[in-house]
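Hey,

Quick one before I head out. I ran the complex with FE2/S2 (inorganic) cluster overnight. Inputs first:
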Amino acid sequence: MLSLLPIRFGIYFITWNLSITKFHDSKIGYLCNFQFNIMDNEINITVIDREGKAHQLQAPTDMNMNLMEVCKAYDLPIMATCGGMAMCATCQVYIESDQELPEMQDDEEAMLSEAFYVEDNSRLSCQIPITDELEGLTVRLVPED
Ligand code: FES
């Protein structure tokens, strides 16, 4: 009796696994997955690269990341030479949507006053923490030096 236990467990596991797969393929399963994604603390951000191609990024709001780090994680061409210290401006982006961003601090403002290609909607992406309020944010990468 005891020796049959692993076999019974194996059958149970396979059956359970198949039912889970069917559940995820169903419409209700899809909706549940959608709900889980919202609960996963992720927001959607669009980054337009220098060729005009839009990249859809999912950014976690619970990992203390900033926009520059998310762009780097997706291998987008942002240099971020200073590593996020607001000292290089190689992470500059243009804000193309109207989400309310955190107010610019003195060091960011000072850096942007010396940088190239600065426009009214310029921000240093390393100074923009990923928060729920940024859902749907669209930014464009500045031209390269
Ligand atoms: S990474 Fe250097 S200013 Fe943002």
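Residues 68, 80-82, 84-91, 111, 124, 126 surround FE2/S2 (inorganic) cluster (CB under 6 Å).

Talk tomorrow,
K.
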